[in-house]
Amino acid sequence: MQNKIFTSWLPLLAVYTLLLTGCVSAEKYNKMINQWVGVDENTLVATWGAPTSQYQTDQAKYLTYEKVQQHTVPATPSSVQVIQQGDAVFTRPIPGTPGYSYTSECRTTFTLQNKRVVNVNASGNSCVL
Question: Does the residue 81 lie in any domain?
Answer without folding.
Answer: yes
